[in-house]
Write a structure and sequence with these properties.
Length: 110
């Protein structure tokens, strides 16, 4: 299932297991990293508002999302040949819909 842990945990988990796969070639690491990657695509939002946070904490939501995007991008690259076309489409769509478009919209509104 999808963990409620911080986004940085997701990034770390994806990168560690994708790296283990790249070093060892063991499918169990690729399978785990792939599932973590696909689970991240199912999170409802990557850039989220911090309720009742002072304006000074506004960058924190972008930093958390950036950690997740780094993990997704790294795992996507290292697992590319292990991912199906549908997997790749889901990841690219999630990056566009859950990170790139929200960030661009926030900057356009500023």
């Amino acid at each position: 299932g999808i963990s409620n842990g911080p986004k940085s945990f997701w990034a770390d988990e994806m990168v560690r297991t994708a790296f283990a796969f790249r070093l060892t070639g063991e499918g169990r690491y690729a399978d785990f990293a792939r599932q973590s990657l696909l689970n991240a695509t199912k999170l409802p939002a990557w850039v989220t508002d911090i309720p009742d946070a002072p304006q000074a904490q506004e960058p924190l939501k972008h930093m958390a999302a950036s950690f997740l995007v780094f993990g997704v991008a790294t795992a996507f690259d290292w697992l590319h040949d292990e991912l199906s076309a549908d997997d790749r489409k889901a990841v690219v769509g999630a990056v566009a819909d859950k990170w790139l478009r929200p960030v661009l919209a926030q900057h356009a509104a500023a």
